[in-house]
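Interim report, section 4.2 (structural modelling).
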Amino acid sequence: MPFKSWSAAVTAEMIILFARVVTAVRAIWDGVEPVAKKRVYFANHTSNGDFVLVWSVLPPHMRRRTRPVAAGDYWLTSRPKSFVGREVFNAVLIDRNPDTRTEDPIALMAEALDAGSSLILFPEGTRNTTDAPLLPFKSGLFHLATQRPDVDLVPVWIENLSSVMPKGEVFPVPLLCTIRFGAAMWLQDGEDKDAFLARTHAALLELGESGETG
Amino acid sequence: MSAPMEFVFLLAGVLCVLIVASMVAFTLKSRLGPDKTDPVIENLVARVNAWWAMVALLSFAMLAGRAGAVILFALLSFAAMREFLTLTAKSRADHYALAAAFYVVLPFQYYLIWIDWYGLYSIFIPVYAFLFLPIIAALRGETENFLTRVSETQWGLMICVFAGSHVPALMDLNIPGYEGKSILLIAFLVAVVQGSDVLQYVFGKLMGRHKIAPVLSPSKTWEGFLGGVLTASLLGAGLWWMTPFTMWQAFLMALMIAVMGFFGGLVMSAIKRDKGVKDWGHLIAGHGGFIDRLDSVVFSAPIFFHVVRYFWAVT
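Predicted structure of the assembly:
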């Protein structure tokens, strides 16, 4: 095995171990089974550790085929970040700025799906630091669902990671985190952008609230 | 220092009990037939299996001697506080105070146990952490729920770290005629308190009728309490040979440990009810979280420590 992929595999294991020590993270499959189907996991976004946590609760055979969608303008700014983003997580790196980008983000995501990968996507587009539980969705999820209507869209609620690692903090505080996977959704016939985004937004919020009572 | 011979005898006894428990659980499960499931029996099987793992872990630490016991309980404090502070009130402004609790207070408390500085480990959390953590929180300037936030953090430190650290602190006690054996006090405490929990569960399941505190805990009954505490005290009396106590002293010590353990479970149940959860965590299959297993230990350990220190140890 070449050194680069070997060191990426070791780094991945260390990151997973660290995430488990800090958060004792637990997956609750509440509507879908942990099986290797092609899926788009769409999750709430409160912390830089979000996709690490979702990724680390996936069974290893699913983890290898699941790629986070992340901002290239963040992950390509230094060599260590670029190593982690590209080699360890094999992220689909997109440019969030429409003026500078050369490739269409939706086309990049669709390409990854066609190549057999699942995706982890944060439809809020940016980290939520407000008091609202979930920001309005950007339109990316809709465009992806339009282009690949057969792929399962699975809502994923990440609970408590914002307390472990609030925005701007350097080191995490150890607290328990839960990742809840909800029932798969698809774009319905004739459903327009606003209706689809409202429906997926409501489903993700409801998934988060279901965890608070039970 | 490695564990004395008495520990090996105790371990042999515990292994016999576990083998019997596994056989009972297996018999109950196979009598049920392959097609049926019963949540109580499923839970019993999970509990017994988790006990094998817990006994293995504890024995491994104890056989490694003093360092093993200090490290094990430091890790248990870490796991317990991780569960406790998940449920307490906090805001982003508490980040440094919480980080200090985990990365400074916890290791330093166990370091003090390791170097046997009784004068400081007895007051470090009740005085220094108590005064300095609220200062760190106040400096961030967020006043909403301030008193609730600092109080609940302090409570977590007291119960998970301060009280928990009194288990390995038992090894620091210097008892004439008992030199090099004080690690057995940990074995005695853990055997009695966990024995009491198990016996209360068994008596409660077999003949529990009258609930003690239906609001706090539906599973705690008078029959379970009396049967469990009395048999655990007899168990403690039967373990007198590994302690510095006479047989009746061992009985009374075990009684005190079991009663404190019972009330520890009650208090921690009240907190769970308040916070709206059934278990503290999920990492010990069949039992819940670490605090679900440690609640009775942390309530009895400091009292046991101070009673032994006052009446038996030279200071």
